[in-house]
Amino acid sequence: VFRISSLNTIFRFGISDNHLGQPPNNGIYIEKLAADSFFYGVSRASATQTRSATSAAPVANTWFMARVRRIDGATLGFSINNGAEVMITTNIPSVALYPWFYIENTDGVANHLEVDFFDIEYSGLTRF
Predict the structure, then answer these.
(1) Which of 33, 64, 122, 126 is the most buried (most CB within 10 A)?
(2) Are 6 and 117 in contact (CB under 8 A)?
């Protein structure tokens, strides 16, 4: 659950392998670039990405609930506020990924990304 203070931002959040590189070489995340009219789901492997628009438009100071999930071994699903889920089946990373948040302002004014709740669940694991 998140909100942004201004649309004049670039932000990404989800899981990635590199918190310093923007965009990261590998990651699964939601993003909004400065000129975007929608939130996007992104799957990025070895610096090659697939990016797909969700049905949700960003609105400043409005709370949104994002969901990113692995549907199966070859499909990721992205949705905002329980809207239509967009599917990505290419450029799915196969390296270790970690929770991560990134924001950059594009108008020279202090902007922020507020995160009210973040949850990550790993299911289907086998204990040795």
Answers:
(1) 64
(2) no
Q: What sign results for the dihedral spanned by CA atoms 25, 115, 117, 81?
A: negative
What is the pTM for the complete model shown?
0.90
pLDDT in tens, 27-40: 999 999 988 999 99
The residue type found at 90 is T
Which of 48, 50, 113 has the alpha carbon at shortest distance from 86?
50
